[in-house]
Amino acid sequence: MQKDKELIPHLFRTEYSKITAVLARLFGFEHIEIAEDIVSDAFMIAAETWGQKGLPDNPVAWLYTVSKNKAKDYLRRNQLFSEKIVSAIQNNTTGAYEIEIDLSGKNINDSQLQMMFAICHPVITVEAQVGLSLRILCGFGIEEIADAFLTNKETINKRLFRAKEKLRAAQVKIELPGEAGISNRLAAVLTTLYLLFNEGYYSLSQNISLRKDLCLEAMRLTYLLAENKLTKRPEVHALLALMCFHSSRFEARIGKGGESILYEEQDTSLWDKELILRGQHYLNLASTGNSISKYHLEAAIAYWHTIKTDSHEKWDNILQLYNQLLIIEYSPAAALNRTYAYAKTYGKPAAIIEAEKLNLAPNYLYHCLLGYLYTGVDNTTALNNFETALKQAKASADKTKIKEYIKQLS
Amino acid sequence: MNEFSLIFRSAQDPDVQFSPEQMQGVLKQWRDWIGGIAAQDRLANPGNRLGFEASVVRDNVVTDGPYAEIKEMITGFIIVKGDTIQCAIEMAKGCPVLKIGGSVEVRSIIPMSMEMN
Known about the structure:
The structure holds 2 protein chains of 2 kinds. By secondary structure, chain A is mainly alpha-helical. Chain A contains 20 helices and no strands.
């Protein structure tokens, strides 16, 4: 029975977004709530019926059939609405309202892909794009989204409501932009998927299975892009490679108590070799064309991190990649990581000169880096930096780690 | 934040061929230097490296080569961000061109809005 109880949330996660995408594409984005309501209804009926009569042989097919019937019912009961849709989508001459609802795998993929472009639209903020993607493309509950963003349900509800309003006002269509438009719009889609993945990978949320789900969903959606002939661009493969390499360390980087385990201290036997190989495969696919995106560089950096053994070659390559990444796009995290790679390549004293120029104080990670660089060179300065870092760090796992460094030094 | 152009000059002989390893070494020095500026969020534009194919047009007369009398030629430029020219000069001091006897000219860039007025 326990299994049955888990089945509905599981199906909700995997099927809700698929059916919603197909129906919303049929109705148009302006009626997306109708699509969401119909699918939610179908799940309610499933919960009731399955609870009384037991599971059907094929729960997914059952859900699809009920959703289809619900949608058709809705169209029958709301003739004006269905006439509008019918004339808009197929110039139907028979006058019948019988609309075929196609829940085949291909149509589901196409609909989700188009939905991705509709949601990742520049009229709404990137944060809103990530939130809407989680809800509409990944089937996450409002509470889970709030948990991932470390905020409350009301805030998320408001944010999603406003985002939908804006998309409606902009008359956004659920469709792929033309071949020429894809390049521009694809960048926004990739940014959202990248943030979606990072939300799971770097989130401070204690809910580890939720974090893993976020990463998997980001990968699934990126995979959809990689499988479509219009969107399978080198940067899509590069992003997918990056995600594979990172997630290969998922098991190794979180300890039993939920604390994060530093790269240097990870048990490499927990690294997922299969994902590393897939990452290499996508990185190879990404190596066509002549433009290098930040995803290419980050994927290449992540590739070098899948080789645990330290070597001059490894760190020199990582340093060069961070140099290139920073030239394309500055970020404090890249600046800190570059300096770490600089120390590994040219030694701590040379890296201290680079680090002192960064101007990142106050930032606990910056002081941690300085603490690391000064350790063994000037332990008093190292200690001072770790103590500054301790005052600024917020997460308890980080504080514990910094205290350890301080203990080793004093 | 103001912008400054760092213009590199050095005496270059197009006939001197570097080995791939030497090229790699030179490239690495430049990348480390520009990467260091980018890491401070002070790179406004990575600029361009300039090639040897060149002509000078003056009074409708075209002369080959970028160098009229001097042997030193401009080899490239980048644009950096800084509060004062002193910041840009500090960055220029690490430029790899200095190691081969070249020079860096630091020039302020006139903001667009001032040009319009």
